[in-house]
Write a structure and sequence with these properties.
This protein has helices spanning 22-35, 74-87, 129-138, 150-155; strands at residues 9-17, 39-44, 47-50, 61-70, 102-108, 113-114, 119-120, 163-167. It contains 4 helices and 8 strands. The chain is an alpha+beta fold. Strands 1, 2, 3, 4, 5 and 8 form a 6-stranded antiparallel β-sheet that branches. The protein has one domain: 2-Layer Sandwich (Alpha-Beta Plaits). Bound molecules: 7-(2-hydroxyethyl)-8-mercaptoguanine. 7-(2-hydroxyethyl)-8-mercaptoguanine (GSY) binds at residues 16, 50-54, 61, 63, 96, 102, 104, 130.
Length: 171
């Protein structure tokens, strides 16, 4: 390293949980994110209870989106997210099945990042109502300009009825 600090980037993280004390997992994940060096938690969406997508024979999820400001490179940020998942005792026995907590890197500024471990913007986020609806609470730019305004995308997205506001965050 040449000692220069990386410019700060706004990153959007999707949080999801459908095992155990779901609200607590979200609260703990936000607290841990805010404590990590190189990460500042700027905003958090409301919490939504959402019907499971994909493997549907599993309990309902709580989902939300957090906006972070970070000077970590995307891969280092991913390491922090994985470490927080482990700290919170993430278990996931079935690939698309129930999990204690999931922290997905959705957007890293406006950058496209494609490595062995990362594909950002998250390749399925534009089809997922459980991501886009909470994202609308916190986002301050248009991530899919080529698809039209985010609000328009959300207005017509499939599965919208399965996303219900659960509570505002306590942030
Ligand atoms: O990372 C996605 C995990 N997941 C979810 C989720 O977070 N919410 C809902 N509603 N369905 C899901 N299916 C999968 S996999």
């Amino acid at each position: 390293m040449n000692g220069r600090k990386l410019a700060e980037v706004d990153a959007y993280i999707g949080l999801g949980t459908n095992m155990g004390d779901r609200e607590r997992h979200l609260r703990d994940a936000l607290a841990l994110l805010g404590e990590r060096s190189g990460i500042r938690l700027l905003r958090a969406s409301a919490v939504y209870e959402t019907d499971p997508v994909g493997f549907t024979e599993q309990p309902a999820f709580l989902n939300m989106v957090a906006l972070l400001r970070t000077d970590l490179p995307a891969e280092a940020l991913l390491d922090e997210l994985l470490d927080i998942e482990r700290t919170l005792g993430r278990t996931r026995d079935i690939r698309w099945g129930p999990r204690t907590i999931d922290l997905d890197l959705l957007l890293y500024g406006t950058a496209k990042v494609k490595t062995e471990r990362l594909d950002v913007p998250h390749p399925r986020m534009a089809e997922r109502a459980f991501v886009l609806i909470p994202l609308l609470d916190v986002i301050d730019f248009e991530p899919f300009a080529e698809r039209g305004a985010l609000r328009e995308l959300v207005a017509h997205i499939e599965g919208k009825d399965g996303v219900k506001r659960w509570s505002p965050t306590t942030l």
